[in-house]
Each structure stands twice: as structure tokens, then as C-alpha cells.
Specification:
This protein is an alpha/beta fold and 246 residues long. Helices cover 43% and strands 15% of the residues. The protein contains eight helices and seven strands; from the N terminus they run βαβαβαβαβαβαααβ. It has a seven-stranded parallel β-sheet with strand order 3-2-1-4-5-6-7, with helices on both faces. β4 (83-86), α4 (103-131) and β5 (135-139) form a beta-alpha-beta unit. The N and C termini lie far apart (36 Å).
């Protein structure tokens, strides 16, 4: 049996499908997890499942003042964040041609996916730099590197996450802090259902057209692989796709 890991993981988008898979994975290794999500009912229920290994924080990552001070009110066992996983994101109103979509939808996608990632990283990173220890994992997307029509806002946000990740990796190159980008392809997470605002028929049809999709646990295993490398090894990026995609 592997030795248990130690340390605290701050995970955004923690109560969704991918967030839950990531949280269960890190708790299974022995780590504690700070669960950040904006869905109060789902967050409360999931935190109860994980017990004393989890500390829930009800927070929308677009609430900038609260994000900036997220570390201030953490209880002592969770105060030192060793790993940040920026997983929160959505595509509400997406799969719409840019000129036909809502500018409010586009703006909120960018604010959540890109600005939320940057603000959360800025809130956590100074303490990591001071300790010269930490790991930042940003969940990007295949859309960060490949154009997909009708996904202008989401793809732009994920391309921004990619460039942000690469830039801070360069800035931190003389430290012991590791920076990883995960680029998943299509996965069976809640992002598709929320994109269509809960329309189950549209969600089902979307997945059916591609035949195969990743499960949240598939992406979580990749993240754990990056986390569990020796301290001198930095997994810069991993693209993970269903086997019928290229």
C-alpha cells in the first residue's frame, strides 16, 4: 500500500462532476481538501460525504473581494494551501454562433473561466512563494489549442488559461513551485447540462453525437499523476482525450 500523502488542496468547482472526482481522489491519498463551489445544496451534501477531510466554502469565483481574501478565514488545519486546482468553469449559453449569442453570457464565461482562475491563483500564490513550495493545476481544455466553431467565448477563456499557465510557469521557474495545465477533451461532466440550462434532451443529444466521452474519474487520475511526481519533476501539460478523438 502506498504511503498516504499530506497537505491541503484548494479545489474550485468542487461540487460538480469533475470536482467531486478530483476531491475524492485527493482525499483517498490522505490529503485534505478545501471545497469551493457556488451551489450551496450540492456543496453541503458533498462536504458531508467527505467528513473531516473537507472544509466547504460557498463562493462564486467571480466574487472578487471574497476570492482575494479566501485564505483569511480558513480553520487552522486547512490554512496552508499546498495545491491549488482551478477547476471552476462553465459554458452557459455556449454552442451559439458569436453574433447570435448573449454578450452577458460571453462576459460571464470569461469572468468565471479566466478571471476567476487568475484571481484565485493570485490569492494563493504569494504564500506558496514565501514557503517556496506548492503546486498549481489549471484545468484548461482541448479548446485552448483547437478551434471549435460556436464556442468563441469558452475557447477564448481556455486559451487565456493556457497562456496564463505558461506565463506563471516561466515566472516561477527559479522556485520549487510546480505549474500544470490539464487539457481534457469531451467529458461527462455537468458543463454540458449547464450550457443548455438543464435541457436534458439537448444534453443527451450532444453526447450521443460523439459516441465516446471521458468520465470525470479519468481526468482526476491524470491530475493525481501530476501531483504525485517527485518534487523535482514538473508535469507542464497533459492532453487527455477519448480514444476516438484526435
Amino acid at each position: 500500500m502506498a504511503e498516504p500523502k499530506h497537505g491541503n488542496v484548494l479545489l474550485t468547482g468542487a461540487a460538480g462532476g469533475l470536482g467531486r472526482a478530483i476531491a475524492r481522489g485527493v482525499v483517498a491519498t490522505g490529503r485534505r481538501v478545501i471545497l469551493v463551489d457556488r451551489n450551496a445544496a450540492s456543496l453541503k451534501e458533498f462536504a458531508a460525504e467527505l467528513g473531516d477531510k473537507a472544509h466547504p466554502i460557498l463562493l462564486d469565483t467571480t466574487d472578487h473581494p471574497k476570492v482575494d481574501h479566501i485564505l483569511d478565514d480558513l480553520p487552522e488545519p486547512f490554512r496552508e494551501v499546498d495545491i491549488l486546482v482551478n477547476n471552476a468553469g462553465h459554458d452557459i449559453g455556449g454552442r451559439t454562433r458569436f453574433d447570435q449569442g448573449s454578450t452577458d453570457d460571453w462576459t460571464d464565461i470569461i469572468r468565471t473561466n479566466l478571471i476567476g482562475t487568475m484571481r484565485m491563483t493570485h490569492a494563493v500564490l504569494p504564500a506558496m512563494v514565501k514557503r517556496n513550495h506548492g503546486h498549481i493545476v489549471n484545468i484548461s481544455s482541448i479548446n485552448a489549442v483547437r478551434i471549435v466553431p460556436d464556442m468563441a467565448a469558452c475557447s477564448t477563456s481556455k486559451a487565456g488559461v493556457r497562456m496564463f499557465t505558461e506565463t506563471i510557469r516561466g515566472e516561477l521557474a527559479e522556485t520549487a513551485i510546480r505549474v500544470t495545465e490539464i487539457l481534457p477533451g469531451l467529458a461527462r461532466t455537468g458543463i454540458i447540462a449547464t450550457r443548455y440550462r438543464g435541457d436534458e434532451e439537448k444534453t443527451r443529444a450532444y453526447f450521443e453525437q460523439f459516441k465516446l466521452a471521458l468520465e470525470p474519474e479519468d481526468v482526476a487520475r491524470v491530475i493525481l499523476f501530476a501531483l504525485d511526481q517527485p518534487p523535482h519533476v514538473q508535469i507542464a501539460e497533459i492532453m487527455v482525450l477519448p480514444v476516438n478523438r484526435y
